[in-house]
Amino acid sequence: MAKKKTEKKPEKTDEKKPVTMPREVEIGFHQGALNTLINERNGLVNMIRQIESVMQAHLKRLEELGVKVRRSSEEEK
Fold first, then answer.
1. Rg of the Cα atoms in the chain
2. Which sign does the torsion angle of CA 59, 64, 65, 70 carry?
3. pLDDT tens, position by position, 20-50
4. Model pTM?
5. DSSP state string for the chain
6. Cβ partners under 8 Å of residue 62, min gap 6
7. Alpha-carbon span 74 to 49, nearest angstrom
8. In this predicted structure, what is the pLDDT of residue 25?
9. How confident is the model at residue 70 (pLDDT cuts 50, 70, 90)?
């Protein structure tokens, strides 16, 4: 009978070693992340503007049809 080799698995530790990278690379990474997030935020703002515009058009038409639409409590005060 042949013996099976048992490989030792490295022990898992709870400590995570921070990934080190050159300063210039890290700066580029963070700048790229910020640029991406800024573009995503701008896209969301544009989407919200479009949604608001369509909502206002529906509200206006409902009011023209004589339907009273209750608005948020902030506008009622």
1. 29
2. positive
3. 889 999 999 999 999 999 999 999 999 999 9
4. 0.58
5. -PPPPPPPPPPP-SPPPPPP--HHHHHHHHHHHHHHHHHHHHHHHHHHHHHHHHHHHHHHHHHHTT------HHHH-
6. 69
7. 19
8. 95
9. confident
CB atoms within 10 A of CB 36: 10
State yes or no: pLDDT of 75 exceeds 70: no
Rounded Cα–Cα distance for residues 62 and 69 (Å) = 8
The 8 Å CB, 24+ separation contacts for 47-54 are: none
Tokens (6 digits) for 47: 């989407």
